[in-house]
């Protein structure tokens, strides 16, 4: 192998490590927004204590799944899709709970 080929291979290897070892900024941003939506629901009285507890438990499970996905230093496309799916369900649940008939007690 010549020097040019070795340099190219090393550059590609370093670039691919950086791509796989990335954090999940989109997941983190959605998580922050969903936490804010839950807190806004509590403040407005749209969420009662039981609903809030369930939604926060769901967020905790999502955090655990994200930590597990990052544990080996890379988040694969399959893991990212799983996290997105979990966040989609959490978002749906937040909306459903905020707009149902149950309200927090005054």
What characteristics describe this protein?
106 residues, mainly alpha, 4 helices, elongated
Write a compact overview of the structure shown:
With 106 residues, the chain is mostly helical. It has four helices and no strands.
Describe this structure in words.
The protein has 106 residues and is mainly α. The protein has one domain. The protein contains four helices and no strands. The chain has helices spanning 3-20, 25-44, 49-70, 77-98. It is elongated, with a radius of gyration of 20 Å. It starts with a helix and ends in an 8-residue tail after the last helix. The model is unreliable at 16-21 (pLDDT under 50).
How is the topology of this model organized?
Elements: H1 3-20, H2 25-44, H3 49-70, H4 77-98
What's the helix-strand series? HHHH
Main structural class: mainly alpha
Number of domains: 1
How far apart the termini lie comes to 75 Å
Poorly predicted segments: 16-21
Taking all Cα atoms into account, the compactness measure Rg is: 20 Å
Shape: elongated
The biggest sheet amounts to: none
How much of the polypeptide forms β-strand, as a percent range? under 5%
Q: Please report the number of helical segments.
A: 4
**Topology, number of strands:** 0
């Amino acid at each position: 192998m010549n020097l040019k080929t070795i340099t190219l291979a090393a550059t590609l290897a370093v670039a691919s490590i950086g791509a796989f070892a990335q954090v999940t900024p989109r997941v983190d941003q959605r998580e922050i927004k969903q936490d804010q939506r839950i807190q806004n629901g509590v403040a407005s009285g749209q969420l009662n204590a039981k609903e809030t507890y369930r939604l926060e438990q769901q967020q905790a499970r999502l955090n655990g799944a994200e930590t597990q996905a990052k544990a080996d230093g890379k988040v694969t496309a399959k893991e990212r899709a799983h996290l997105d799916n979990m966040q989609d369900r959490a978002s749906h649940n937040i909306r459903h709970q905020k707009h149902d008939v149950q309200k927090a007690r005054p």
